[in-house]
Specification:
Blueprint (H helix, E strand, L loop, with lengths): L14 H17 L26 E6 L5 H19 L4 E7 L4 H13 L3 H6 L4 H15 L3 E4 L3 H7 L8 H15 L5 E8 L14 H19 L3 E6 L22 H5 L2 E6 L9 E2 L2 E2 L4 E9 L6 E8 L4 E7 L8 H5 L1
Helix pairs in contact: 3-5
Length: 340
Amino acid sequence: MAYLKPDIKGLIHSPAKVGDLSIQMVETIRQDNGGGVTFGLPQVDGVKKLLPLRPGDLLTVWGYTSFWKSHLMDWWALQEVKRIIARGNTNDIVIKVTWEQSVEEDTLSWLASASEIPVSKMMHGSLDTEEWKTLEDATLSRQVTPLWLMGHSLMESLQLHRPRPRMTLSEVAECIRIVVNEIAGVRLNPRLIILDYLQRIPPERDNRDSRREYVMENVNLSKDLGIAYGCPVVLGVQVGRQVLDRAEAMPILSDAQESSAIEQTSDKVLGLWYPIKTRRGGMVDNISVTPRMLIMELLKQKLGVAPISWILDIDPEKGTVEGARERAYTVAASQKKYSA
């Protein structure tokens, strides 16, 4: 993932060549009808809604702290895993890279979804015999699930008395190369890469640029990962506290911390607002705010419609999305009001 000097001649494309390449792209999509990485809910996916993520796409998920960014990305990864299993393609995988949680903590959300045992109950240590057996069965299922995690292990760190490693994106790229080409004995095919989250990714080892500059470079490297491995990348992005000053704490396209390159490089942008954090006891669209309500807005979509907003019905204990309904109102439509 280090900078590579481009092949100058390879950057030149004649009119005839770009015509051929473009029709090849459309034909590939046509043959893969119903393919791509979809969100997984019919109310969200569609021709005039959220288009499938295609190879090389970078989708960024924006939200303030505790606005459900990681949970939503975890759930999305699980939906793609289920599709891989249904297709029966044993070489397809999903890769998630986490800089925030340990791989054990990250897996608890998966186990909660699979076992229907809330994470809080696991962490309390109060499982009865039947629940423990259910959890063991879910763990066995996890061990054969095509979801690879990259990050630090809390248990191994405690056992070996070693600090948490701080992975650069070049090191992540090398980890993915090893997974894809070496570990399984066959070439694996990443269908989706999830990076959680941008502001926790350190600069490259030899990078002495300002934070703003290296965050911009990490956005570009995230996009490059998807191009290199022929799959979409979903990248979590933290937004600033200014969203909390609004009636609806939904991010707008000027809100991403550190760099405007996030907005410019993203092919799609999803914003999240978790109303229970800012409007407890209030109403949204004449619906009472509860922990099950999450507002998701498609703020940007290259070659597609935006903005579009949905109210998602979530189960916060199990980390699942149960349904969605489209909203008539979008925060992005009033962006000028906030950026004036």
